[in-house]
Amino acid sequence: MTSRAERFDEVVLEVATSLERAWNRPFPVFELAVEEVPPSDPAPWEHAEIPLGRVFAAQGRTPARVVIYRRPIHTRAVDDRDLALLVGQVVTEQIAGLLGVAPHDLDPRYEQD
Questions:
Q1: Is residue 113 part of a domain?
Q2: Position 37 pLDDT exceeds 80
Q3: Measured between alpha carbons, how far is 102 from 110 in angstroms, rounded to an integer?
Q4: Which of 15, 40, 62, 63 is surrounded by the most beta carbons within 10 Å?
Q5: Is residue 95 part of a domain?
Q6: Minimal CA–CA distance to 55: which of 27, 82, 76, 26?
Q7: Is residue 97 one of the residues assigned to a domain?
Q8: pLDDT in tens, 64-102
């Protein structure tokens, strides 16, 4: 039996793996992480919005990092199906940002609500 947090992590990984397969070429090296909440010091462009994910650029030997925030996504989801759709949307947006492409170019099924 898996916990809610473990299932969330699995969905994030499934989406990322599916995106890479569909992209038909390897993604650049990056770390994919799930954190409970974003740090309390928002980025200047975030204003009053609570981010659902972030991309951190590579620095020196540290690879780029895509972070997905579990609690803000859970609070927006109505049910498990909605949660899976929202996770898919956020992961697609963040990885597309990492690649420098539009989310729809990465995943033609991408729909922004």
A1: no
A2: yes
A3: 10
A4: 15
A5: yes
A6: 27
A7: yes
A8: 999 999 999 999 999 999 999 999 999 999 999 999 999
